[in-house]
Amino acid sequence: MPSSNRLASEPVYIVDGARTPFLKSRNRPGPFAASDLATDAGRALLLRMPFAPTDLDEVILGCAAPSPDEVNIGRVSALRMGCGNRVPGWTVMRNCASGMQAIDSGIAQILSGRSELMLTGGTDALSRAPLLFDDAMVQWLSRWYAAKSAGAKAALLTELRPSYFAPVIGLMKGLTDPIVGLLMGQTAENVAYRFGITRAQMDAYAAESHRRLLAAQKAGVFAREIVPLYDQAGKLYAADDGVREDSTPQNLAKLKPFFDRKYGNVTAGNSSQVTDGAAWVVLASARAVDRWKLTPRGRIVDTQWAGLDPAQMGLGPTYATTPILVRQGLGLADIDAWELNEAFAAQVLGCLAAWQDDAFCRDELGLPHALGTLDLAKLNVDGGAISLGHPVGASGARIVLHVLNVLERTGGKRGMATICIGGGLGGAMLVERV
Fold this sequence. Notes:
By secondary structure, the protein is an alpha+beta fold. The protein is 37% helix and 18% strand. The protein is built from 15 helices and 14 strands. The strands form 3 sheets. Strands 1, 2, 3, 4, 5, 10, 11, 12, 13 and 14 form a 10-stranded mixed β-sheet that branches. It has a two-stranded antiparallel ribbon with strand order 6-7.
């Protein structure tokens, strides 16, 4: 983002937001498609508004893994929410930050003068990621369908091998970086090794994420944020369902490493969960606020995107957040609430360690010395993706919405939402409570 921050003179407001419960994948397709999730959360949010869905200027939705029948899922969801034929709906994809990218794209549209009232967010139903055939099976099927005679098909049957039927897991391919050839969890192992983060530290952080989410659920802090869902059988889904009371450091220590089975420390228990979910926020210009007599809840102060080594992608939040802090003349302690997406415990702890490291801050971030220590009491206070899940397309929007909710609850002024992004990227947004 340029050093002359246009958002300072032309404010973009967050009017309100909502999300679905984040539902953990159970190794089978979940009850809701990605557009179902987006539609249900969006309808409930728009019902709160004094304007009609058809009054929106645009709908922008982030999604990392839309199904083949929901290719432009932003348009599909806009039509299903009742926005009408004339409201454009479109889709963005920036891996883990797709939902944040949708918000940033909405900001750009408002600042350009093209739009004034936007619905922006993200969705993914990762439980429905496809199982694929490998190239050998695809080639065999191509020849099978091209065969004209019974004899030709009989000959092809002799070439068919049992190995052709082994499924290729689409989600695993999506979570593998094509440039460095590493699964996202393997990049987390790199970060852990770089900063000497131990298995015990990872498990302790993961257990605390579950403890905080359980406490938040019991305190009812998600009452306004989460829209309950009903499936076709009438079953109610009212809360994030991946949290576990038995996720203690002692129990987590029993799990075997998943990404580096011989030397690693990253496990399923100290990683984010494969999850389905959607999240939205309504954005408005100052003119739209006046026209519709809206009461904004927050203002987006600054945004930043950054690139880094894909093999160290978990450090993305340090690269994206630091320029915002420098531009705004702020330190880590000046932020009242932080949402740093918990892709992996190793990755979150790696970011905290990097900010305390003189050499990293000097060589990688261009600072004269270490940035300092982030107060853990301000970080992911209601848990994060380790305990509530990481529906890739939705998480970037969720953390923007939730950091604003935390500010309102605690009386804080400034909140930072930041996320690491597969492919070696980082994203951050600074918001202020209005």
